[in-house]
Amino acid sequence: MRFFRPLPRGLSRCLSALVVLSWLGQMGLLYRSIQASTTNLASDLSRYGSSAQWRGVYSRGDKIGFMVGQTVPTADGYDIQEDGRIQMTLLGATTAARLHTAVQVDKAFEVRSFQFSMDPGTGPIEIGGTVDGRRLQLTVKTPSGRRTETRELPERPALSLNLSRRLAAEGLAPGKHIETTVFDPATLRNETMVIDVQAREVVRAANRPVPAFKVLTRYAGITSTSWVTDTGEVVREESPLGLIVVKETPESATALSVPGDVQADMLEAAAVVPSPPRRIDDPSAVEKLVVRLDGVDLSGPDVQGAGQTVSGNVVEVRDTETLKAEEATPDLSAWLRPELFLESDAPEIVAEAKKAAAGATAPRLIAERLTRYVNALLEKKPTVSLPSALEVLRTRVGDCNEHTALYVAMARALGLPARIAVGLVYVRGGFYYHAWPEVYVQEGRGQGRWLPVDPTLNQFPADATHIRLARGGLDRQVAILPAIGHAKMRVLEVNVKAGSTPLLVGRPAQDLRPLDLPIPKRDSATHCWSQPS
Known about the structure:
The chain has 533 residues and is α+β, with helices and mostly antiparallel strands. 19% of the residues lie in helices and 38% in strands.
């Protein structure tokens, strides 16, 4: 029952920051994870009775998973439950994750509490919430620990799992227009959702024709289409990103989804390839990159600064080493505080950060040592998770989101202001969605600057092919979702550093440390956009 979401949130985030979720699965542990969790999944699914609604999830024609949901009456309301399993191909590697959502509502379908969990095979990350008026008490639990936070909301939160039932209870009719606030437990964010009911149509679901109202939903910049029956059952959903969720029989929904072959590579499909194609032989040698970027919102403040300037739809990125320090930013406290998923005050994070700094005191040297340390510490594998820095430190596995979360938390633990950036980076002929940190470095009395760094690619500073589209946590990262599948790029100018020589064979230089220092080598490369080995 995933109505009123532009697409299953676990999937959408995988495409955005994912290189926005966080990425799906773990290659090395995947097969064992599927075997180990199949029994538990079967136990979870046994709670679903004859009234449960089963759905297959498809991406560009390939079956990538299933969802099952049901509404169970309780003494004072309803318990709305959903479970599912998603798997797909990212850079040729099959990846998987389990999802679970439960929402407790009253007779009027107002939210009282909710639970959301995601398990990539290394243990579930769970988010729970209780609602008291407009006060939301959040709890995040991972195998590494538990954290709580209280938030005051402008209005009582509504979750996507109960909105279709509420809409049906009010009566579906062509022309009906609704605006409501939806709270997403995966991103911990409220945002306005616009719903427009159109004419009744007949669609095929569970191998039979079903009359249902066509409903357009606009949320987080994405318009999706759903077909909803008079009773509030969603029989089909379509996302502009090529994802389809359709009602099926239990046998059809679960067939070939655990395990199975999934041919479509979602990361490759999300790449932004310049037109006409433009080759960049050595991204680390780029001194200035100028591109025209259409289909992307470039109006916000996040796209300016740290070596990047935007005018209209033209983006210019300069190598930050060519820029001078500026007058120090007066208030950096927001980039030093711990957050729910950036546990910079955790003793384990503080201890690891001090170990990485190895006694360094100069801010720039600390920032560089953190870059090298995090790059060497984490095994590069696509991972679906809500990237908690403490959990990343425990598993030591991840993609760009995990590298970035751990770096930002460790930098803050050492007193270096740091934040998350998401956008595009050039790799092998195209620009791919990526995440990296920005760290504030003081340089001289009263001066400093934000430096983009990339622990995933082992770049300090990050090269000038990093095009930033947003800054911040998951609530900001999903802002780039509307660009996926719609962004168009033309490279206007590429200036390389004087004396640089294009590399004809081998890997572009990413690590400029002295050769006598140990440099980790991984045949698997990184699935969050490092260069090929």
